[in-house]
């Protein structure tokens, strides 16, 4: 029922697991299985109700999709970055996770959010998946696996917001993906992040999945 997550457990310093709630999911069985974990991520395609206060809703995640076939690359002022992780870039990476469940769940008290997002941007840099705007007005990460691409982190510096950088960052990621042979792009965000959802819709992205996420804390 619960799958151990060795990476998360090692990073956070306590036992972490994940569980996908299907039609046969039982709260009592889940709670019994979860006793050996400090934290369990619980994913469901439908909203769930609980009697236990140990399980709380933390996110309704949206996955956006766009077909890139036949799309011509646009000229942007955003280019691949291969330098070191600077404090400014790290700050932007942390800002990109402002709506993340790892940031909004107050039961994280050991800087788990910062650890996770630092590692995320470091990995993207190592794999040359980071694109930055002029004067570091913003950045985006884009992973390409065969013919599918995915935007991971994206943020615009506070003093450059409202100037169209968000759209240009996504266009740059699409260019990057097309040049590497991708035919589609997905982007994940939180329902609470209304500006991001509006931007993705305006650029032709459609919601293909809604996932309810809960955290169990032991």
UniProtKB/TrEMBL annotation:
Its EC number is 2.3.1.-. Residues 76-218 form the N-acetyltransferase domain. It is an enzyme of class 2 (transferase). It holds the Pfam family Acetyltransf_1. One of its GO terms (molecular function) is acyltransferase activity. Keywords: Acyltransferase, Transferase. The keyword Zinc-finger does not apply. InterPro entries: Acyl_CoA_acyltransferase, GNAT_dom, NAT_camello-type. PANTHER family: GNAT FAMILY N-ACETYLTRANSFERASE (PTHR13947), LD18367P (PTHR13947:SF37). This is GNAT family N-acetyltransferase. It comes from Algoriphagus aquatilis.
């Amino acid at each position: 029922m619960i799958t151990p997550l060795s990476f998360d457990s090692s990073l956070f310093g306590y036992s972490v697991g994940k569980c996908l709630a299907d039609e046969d999911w039982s709260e009592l069985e889940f709670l019994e299985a979860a006793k050996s974990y400090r934290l369990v991520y619980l994913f469901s395609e439908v909203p769930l109700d609980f009697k236990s206060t140990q399980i709380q809703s933390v996110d309704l995640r949206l996955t956006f999709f766009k077909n890139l076939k036949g799309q011509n690359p646009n000229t942007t002022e955003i280019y691949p970055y291969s330098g070191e992780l600077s404090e400014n870039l790290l700050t932007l990476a942390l800002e990109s996770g402002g709506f993340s469940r790892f940031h909004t769940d107050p039961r994280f008290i050991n800087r788990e959010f910062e650890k996770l997002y630092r590692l995320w941007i470091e990995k993207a840099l190592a794999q040359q998946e980071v694109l930055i705007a002029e004067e570091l007005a913003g950045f985006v990460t884009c992973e390409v696996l065969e013919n599918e691409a995915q935007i991971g982190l994206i943020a615009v510096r506070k003093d450059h917001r409202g100037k169209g950088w968000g759209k240009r960052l996504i266009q740059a990621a699409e260019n990057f993906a097309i040049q590497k042979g991708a035919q589609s792009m997905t982007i994940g965000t939180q329902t609470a992040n209304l500006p991001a959802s509006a931007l993705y819709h305006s650029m032709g992205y459609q919601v293909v999945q809604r996932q309810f996420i809960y955290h169990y804390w032991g």
